[in-house]
Amino acid sequence: MTVAANVSLTGFRYWYPNAREPALNGIDLDFADGIALLGGASGSGKSSLLRVFNGLVPHFHGGMVSGSAKVCDHDVVTTTTRVLARRVGFVFQDPELQSVYAGVDRDVAFGLENVGVAATEMPGRVAEALERTGISHLRGRAVATLSGGERQRLALAGVLAMRPRLLVLDEPLAQLDDAGARALVSTLGELASAGTAVVVAEHRFEHLAGLPGRRLAIDSGRVVDPGERFTTRISGAELRIPTHAVPTRAGATGAWGLTDVATGPAGAPLLEGVSLVGRAGEVIALVGPNGGGKTTLLRTIAGLLSPISGSVERAPGRVAFLPQNPMALLHRPTVAAEVAWTLRAGSLGRDPGDILRDLGLAHLAERDPRDLSSGERQRAAIAAVLAGAPDIALLDEPTRGMDTAAREALCRVVATMRAAGSAIVIATHDKQLVGALADRTVAVGAGSARELTTVAVA
Q1: Are strands 448-452 and 309-314 parallel, antiparallel or unpaired?
Q2: pLDDT tens-digit profile of 217-232?
């Protein structure tokens, strides 16, 4: 017998351990099928609510609960996550943390192995999941060689192979190119039509406008009326990101340069014949499809990846690099300590509080970065990287998981750095960010990197 999702929360409240205020503050919610789109600012409680559906709240995170929560006819509080995982598929905000095995095929099969699916059935389900997520061409690849967007699709494939009754996606579009986003939306529609209930929490709603279903919003731990602004975002209307920028005066000084460079992971050329120069006081946007080489190019500029051939030059000065996964950077006990560590030499001339205020993080200064929402962690990592105005700043998908207010704050910080003479390179799928900040745009993909005469994003 097929079990419906049957999600029902009544007066549900949840406090994280040692928290004074509830992260979820009286949630009343019922649905059994179709698609529900969930919006809200970073830190509003979206991820906490999603984690109720598979029991991570409260079983993994601990803390206190009141009220009731049922999913797939199971009481969440009295049912283990092991049982709920058979019905609820969950794709987290950080797909790089969801992979277990080194190879793509084996990683997709991991969940099937855990629930005892017959070995003869696994290959077919793995192949089906890879096809549904548009990554059949990645079969046989090492997970470590995948781009952030490819890893997002891989995480989804592993979940779809389990054939869940409820599919929960936390910021699934954060690192996808347009083609990947369209494919995901098509897959979600097909799943909902076939009877799978789908819940999506997102900040990037432009691709979701055509999906039928409910529109929900969460604010301060409560489900609220979405309101006109949220409904407008769901409908696909673009929001303007103010630049707050000083007119660009890029200097003639080259901050970095690549000459006839071939580069790629593990010594295999992904890009060839790349010749580019970045100047002080300039923002360059790298755009292109998932897996096209944007991250590879950033790492080569930074000196983290040696070119296979050609030469890379960097002017003297501090180089800051923001990877796609902010948790790779955050190891200190508080957000303020992360920034202070960057400024520890004492010669960078700023108080840690300055950039925290600029990025809207002052109220989180004493919080542990690991306890923040994805968007908040992203801003904390940016604050730690950009503190003290580096000479060269290389940012890989900096708006990942960010709401509109956070993206506006990032634009102001980057514009100020550009005016102060920093050379900035941003790899992104965020069209609005490119339009707000880019002085030059470089398309990366199909083995090359070429400058565009007009701003465009794949």
Answers
A1: unpaired
A2: 898 899 886 655 455 4
